[in-house]
Amino acid sequence: MLKTVHESAFSLGVSADTIRRWEKKGLIKASRSPQNHRLFDLAELQRVKEKYSGETVGRGFYVLQAPKNGLSIIELFSGAGGMALGFENAGFETRLLVEWEKDPVATLRQNRPDWDVIHSDVAKVDFKPYHGAVDVVAGGFPCQAFSYAGNGRGFEDTRGTLFFEFARCINEVRPKIALGENVRGLLQHDSGRTLQTMISVFRSLGYRVEFRLLRAQFFDVPQKRERLIIIGIREDIDASHLFPKERDYTLSLREALGNCPESVGARYPERKRQILELIPSGGYWKDLPIDLQKEYMGGSFHLAGGKTGMARRLDWDEPSLTLTCSPAQKQTERCHPSETRPLSVREYARLQTFPDDWAFAGSVASQYKQIGNAVPVNLGYHVGRALHMMLTGEGERNDFESSVTLETQPQQMTLW
Ligand SMILES: C[S@@+](CC[C@H](N)C(=O)[O-])C[C@H]1O[C@@H](n2cnc3c(N)ncnc32)[C@H](O)[C@@H]1O
Fold first, then answer.
1. Nearest CA-CA partner of 248 in 7, 12, 22
2. Which CATH class is domain 260-372?
3. Mean pLDDT for the stretch of residues 284-308
4. CA 20 to 30 Å from 9, out of 1, 121, 292, 404?
5. Residue 122 CB coordination number (10 Å)
6. CA–CA distance, 82 with 323 (Å, rounded to integer)
7. How far is the CA of 386 from the centre of ligand 1 (A)?
8. Ordered DSSP codes for 227-291
9. Where in the chain are the domains?
10. What is the residue with the minimal CA distance to atom 16 of ligand 1?
């Protein structure tokens, strides 16, 4: 049942400000009435209230899964398989993965011995044998500037970059859908010119493109993490762009980490541990006594800016902050909510929605890096389901959106 802020506050016995704060923290999502009033789902608000008071653990930890759908995918720059597993869970057959680092390749091979994983630089792989044989080519190509862009030679202008190799794969395979995945920063990279060049390359290869920023915490992922999703549809394919629609609930750390198996993990040096011990759940360096603030922050103490990532302890009742390649970096600390230690490897994996039996190869630092680099598995699942819906028309149409209001998604653009 949808209610306004004040109606919701009355029904729940909390203040309107409390509901606004939950929305601001990203714990609950409002929809809009025709009069542009915020509307909240009362059942979801009730769940947030119960989670906050510790009355329930809500939905708990889960990894989404759908039946096989007969579609296939090649993924370049596949890392430890976050996106690949999300697509497998959405029903896709994994035809080929390409990755050049030893540890993520070992991770992929030990978890999925039947997947074809090429351990190589993407630039050295010939994709012509897959021509016309795969539905989707995906890749989270590392973002690089194009010094020669704009010479009017289409994708030849980007030669020498990893995006060029991604575009070359698309041109050699000619999949029905090309799927690019990247960080939010690509939107602003070189004042937006990098993304524009990429889009014109997709166009020159005969693909219609739309892109959108997806927020993982609204896609069954207990973590605030944004990913730019670029979808190109081959011009002869009769399909419209669809993106998964944000859910109106989020998952808290408490839900994600319940019954988390023991695992290896990093430890703090003793002095750092003593200082972090004083930080409350959800707090950061400003919660320390002033002398310890100065000791911990060193030269940064007098610099402007909130630096809310420093000496940061995560909050049980919220989705995690974005995971990085290491859980104990000074600027982006991710201390366990109630124990004074960094999140363990398995806790990290849970926040990226890897299943508990997905093992990571390599040193502890390498395992954190592979997990921190991944697309959250459940986000990959939702994107996979959207592509499945686009190509087959099967699925629940209400779970997807073809267009969004500029108010909620200023980053979305349609290119013709
Ligand atoms: C952001 S990670 C990808 C994460 C992956 N999509 C996932 O969901 O787990 C990018 C990966 O690209 C790999 N990579 C970078 N340059 C490469 C190249 N030239 N050839 C092959 N792999 C490359 C890196 O080793 C890294 O694992």
1. 22
2. alpha beta
3. 87
4. 404
5. 21
6. 14
7. 23
8. EEEEEEEETTS-----EEPPPSB---HHHHHTTPPP-------HHHHHHHTTPPTT--GGGS-HH
9. 2-52, 72-250+378-414, 260-372
10. 77
Catalytic residues: 143
The predicted-structure confidence for 170-204, as pLDDT tens digits, reads as follows: 999 999 999 999 998 888 888 888 888 889 999 99
| Alpha helices per DSSP H over 73-207 | 82-89, 102-111, 162-173, 193-204
DSSP 376: P
Positive or negative: CA dihedral 266, 276, 283, 293? negative
- Contact between 237 and 387 under an 8 Å Cβ cutoff? The reply is no
In sequence order, which residues have a C-beta less than 8 Å from that of residue 209 and are 6 or more positions away? 199, 202, 203, 230, 231, 232, 415
pLDDT digits (tens, 9 = 90+) for 353-392: 999 999 999 999 999 999 999 999 999 999 999 999 999 9
Residue of 224, 205, 223, 75 lying closest to 140 (CA atoms): 75
Q: What's the 243 CA to ligand 1 centre distance in angstroms?
A: 23
Which one-letter amino acid corresponds to residue 324? T
Q: Specify the DSSP class assigned to residue 69.
A: -
At 151, the pLDDT band (50, 70, 90 cuts) reads low
pLDDT(406) > 50:
no
Q: Is the CB of 339 under 6 A from ligand 1?
A: no
Domains 2-52 and 72-250+378-414 share a fold: no
Residue with the nearest Cα to atom 19 of ligand 1? Answer: 121
Res 23 pLDDT > 70:
yes
User: Cβ neighbours of residue 329 under 8 Å, at least 6 residues apart?
Assistant: none
Q: Does the C-beta of 373 come closer than 6 Å to ligand 1?
A: yes
pLDDT at 106: 98
Query: What is the third-level CATH fold of 2-52?
Result: Multidrug-efflux Transporter Regulator; Chain: A; Domain 2 (1.10.1660)
Work out the pLDDT band at 287, boundaries 50, 70, 90. very high
How much is the mean pLDDT over the chain?
Answer: 90
**Residue of minimum CA distance from atom 1 in ligand 1:** 373
Query: Relative to the CA of 165, which ligand 1 atom is closest?
Result: 19
- Cα-only R_g, the chain: 22
Residue 79 CA to ligand 1 centre (angstroms): 5
CB 193 within 8 A of CB 237: no
What is the pTM assigned to this prediction?
Answer: 0.89
Protein residue whose Cα sits closest to atom 3 of ligand 1: 79
